[in-house]
Amino acid sequence: MIRREVAVTGIGAVTPAGVGAENTWRGVIAGTPTAAPDPELAGLPVDFSCRVPGFRPEDHLGRKALWRTDRCSQFAVAAALEGVRDAGLDPGTWGAARVAVIISTCFGGQSACENAHRGLLREGHEAVPPTLVPKMLHNMPAAEVSMALGARGVSLGVSAACASSANALELGRGLLVAGSCDIVIAGGADAAVTPLISSGFHRIGALSGRRDDPAAASRPFDADRDGFVLGEGAAALVLERMADALRRGARPRAILAGCGSTNDAFHATAPSPGHLVAEAALRGALSQAGATPDEVDHVNAHGTSTRLNDVTEAAMIARVLPHMPSVTSAKGALGHSFGASAAVEAALTVLTLQHQLAPPTANLETVAPDIEIDLVSKSARTQRIDLAVSNAFGFGGHNAVLVFRRYP
């Protein structure tokens, strides 16, 4: 059995709570909201966001890579480099052909695209920089990580809306179990806090309009929630077969025990009634993990702070897990980072297992009356957590669930 177990041996993160996994953990555990007025969104109906503070790309990339990369890829490289260091791996000595990189994104180089388009309209085609295409392509976060690490194995970008980076982790686990590689750096990145994306989500009614109090705007599962807040960032998890990790003397952080994916095949932006297809993803992930629903101690919910998602997700959790495991959402603190969100939340789930500490849901003051789950609020909760679930759902009906076990 140990040959099929997949260990998480390293994590890296860049989020609105700070650069680095530990800074992110501290911010989420403190329940500190990061939403604030955003000068780049000034004049728009929604003019606030959750941005990564103090990020210096030159601390993580060389000059040539800085010139050709968008903020999205820069986040991805920074998170991946931290994850590899955390795992105790040396890219100078590993078997590069057996190292896979799977980094997801929803929007890729969105800022580069919008900036170039403004230049085109204002000054003509010569204002479009020659770096536009490599900056904007959705495969480039994975490609830039591969180049930064010298990883020559499978290298893929995965796009399944806000479930993307959970699918990246699922694919990475599958490659290890199949023997197609020996190390996987999997995760996601997005830097889509832009005027166009803000306007688009506002037009479909997905964003919070709490302009008078941005810090309180993202409030998952709260009775007064009115939408999510744009966020950005990246996270990367290093995965290895358990036997390989132990053989080289690594200390696994957790076990990625099971994954499940489905598609509602129902609507472009709304979940299927009852979240029954998402339930199949949860049950499939538990089955792959060799676990029963009553073994789940904690759920890191997708928890977007939107009216429809929160109530349908809560109903699904209550139906499948009636023993009331603790539930939290990181989006109250970090906002919604799209293609990065599931990887960030997977990293937080790993840290929850390690610290035996369930983070609070920031801004949760009054649980909505139609939501009946055990939500962690106000402060972190110390509890025994042996098995934890991380949910991710995306436009287009994408559902992905990850199951993590505590490493002994």
What do you see in this structure?
The protein is an alpha/beta fold. It folds into two domains: 7-247, Thiolase/Chalcone synthase (Peroxisomal Thiolase, Chain A, domain 1, 3-Layer(aba) Sandwich); 258-406, 3-Layer(aba) Sandwich (Peroxisomal Thiolase, Chain A, domain 1). Helix content is 34%, strand content 20%. The protein has helices spanning 21-29, 63-68, 71-87, 110-123, 132-136, 140-149, 164-178, 195-203, 242-247, 276-288, 307-320, 331-334, 341-355; strands spanning 6-15, 18-19, 36-37, 48-49, 99-104, 155-156, 183-190, 233-241, 254-263, 298-300, 326-328, 357-358, 374-375, 381-382, 387-394, 398-406. Strand 15 (387-394) and strand 16 form a beta hairpin. The longest helix is centred in the N-terminal third of the chain and has 17 residues, at 71-87. The two termini are 15 Å apart. InterPro entries: Beta-ketoacyl_synthase, Ketoacyl_synth_AS, Ketoacyl_synth_C, Ketoacyl_synth_N, PKS_Beta-ketoAc_synthase_dom, Thiolase-like. Keywords: Acyltransferase, Transferase. GO terms for molecular function: 3-oxoacyl-[acyl-carrier-protein] synthase activity. Residues 3-406 form the Ketosynthase family 3 (KS3) domain.
